[in-house]
Design goal:
Helix content is 37%, strand content 18%. The chain is an alpha+beta fold. The protein has a 4-stranded antiparallel sheet with strand order 3-2-1-5. A two-stranded antiparallel ribbon has the order 4-6. A hairpin with a 6-residue loop joins strand 1 and strand 2. The protein is globular, with a radius of gyration of 12 Å. It starts with 12 loop residues before the first helix and ends with a helix. 24% of the residues are buried.
């Protein structure tokens, strides 16, 4: 996955599932330079993909928070735009 993802076909099924979990409010992320993702309270098994999603600007950290703490993960507008065509196709 590159840092400027514009098409959902550029993402793996796992990355899309992670984005869906964030969109459904089931994910938390750590306040960190390399943020870790937790889904349903459990650490995600593919943190490198979580890091790439955050660095690509698809998942964002909410404002504020203490470094190292877990906070609700949010989709960026770009992340929402990527999932929109998939939701309407389902």
């Amino acid at each position: 996955m590159n840092e400027t993802v514009k098409d959902p076909e550029d993402l793996s099924c796992r990355a899309l599932a992670m984005l869906r979990a964030v969109a459904q409010g089931r994910a938390e992320i750590t306040i960190s330079l390399e943020p870790d993702l937790y889904v349903d309270g459990l650490p995600c098994s593919d943190q490198s993909t979580a890091h790439r999603l955050a660095h690509a600007g698809l998942i964002r950290l909410p404002a504020g928070g203490v470094p190292g703490s877990r906070v609700p993960a949010e989709l960026s507008e770009t992340g929402q735009d990527l999932l929109e065509p998939l939701a309407s196709a389902a």
